[in-house]
Amino acid sequence: QPFSDDEVERATVVGRQTAQWVLAALCAVPQIAAGYAGAPDVTCGTQGEVVVPVPPISDAPAHLEVLADQKLLVGTSSGGGSIIARLTSNGSVDASFANAGSLLLAGSTLNEFLVQSDGRIVVAAKSASGPYVARFLFDGTPDVTFGVAGVASAPGGVQGFSAMAIQADGKIVVTGPQSINAGQLMLARFAGNGVL
Questions:
Q1: Is the pTM of this model over 0.90?
Q2: Is the pLDDT of residue 62 over 90?
Q3: Rounded distance, CA 194 to CA 98, Å?
């Protein structure tokens, strides 16, 4: 997240223990804080460290977003699926999100997630059926106005997504390698309702 003179947004994922994530969380604050120099922000968790219980599928967190309300979205993938968890600004699990704080994408590999300006969460992932884009409401429930029950499939011939961006008009752009023509990339754009 960008730094500015009057606001510092800092949160660093540092590792994984058995059945839990360990985050060294430096919370967003409205001014330059002592933690900017590398000292833990003791207002987060316990002396700047947050331990988050997660399902056993979870590997070390690989995706992180600081939300407008200073909550954190953290996501990862491993062999059994993917998970996106939401933490409050003080590092505790936000139980109001999805299923007791965690959104499980069973059987899917998480490529990326982004947060729209209205708070909806856009996920690029891949399952056994192929790559797809899904959208969730702020509370972690599927956005049924997008695609089919919140999911839009990628066009045929795409191996997976390597990057995703959201335009100012809400359209979603994804890119990834083609499975038919080796060495070529596909670029696709979804409308706000999930239609290609």
A1: no
A2: no
A3: 21
